[in-house]
Design a protein that fits this description.
Length: 125
């Protein structure tokens, strides 16, 4: 069974490399981006094949919330797993922004990433 592409958007090189390695080991094809504009461009290149976007909120370019909005403009209903070290009432995505499919607080364990990606992919789009 072919697994859907996971687009990982992360500006921290160590976290990006770790996420890519963990997901690839689980059999997911992984595409990466280090900033907002690159994330949108990579998503546009493979929008129909991307199953989930793992999106850090604190990225250069135009930031995670703007990326989330643009991805959903390109493909409504795209599954987006937000990762952030500062999940709170003001940045949960429900007050001022369209909510993500799921939130994974940083720091997270490799098993948390694998389980959350699988859960997000299993959820209805």
């Amino acid at each position: 069974m072919t697994r859907p592409i996971v687009l990982v958007v992360e500006d921290e090189p160590a976290i990006l490399a770790m996420s890519r390695m963990i997901l690839a080991r689980e059999g997911y094809p992984v595409v990466t981006a280090e900033d907002g504009p690159t994330a949108v461009a990579r998503f546009q290149d493979a929008a129909d094949a991307v199953g989930v976007v793992v999106l850090d909120l604190n990225i250069p370019g135009f930031g995670g919330w703007a990326v989330l909005a643009e991805l959903r403009r390109i493909r409504p209903g795209v599954r987006v797993l937000v990762t952030t070290g500062s999940v709170g009432a003001d940045d949960s995505g429900t007050a001022l922004h369209e909510p993500p499919t799921a939130v994974l607080p940083k720091p997270y364990r490799p098993s948390d990433l694998i389980e959350t990606v699988a859960r997000v992919l299993a959820a209805p789009a």
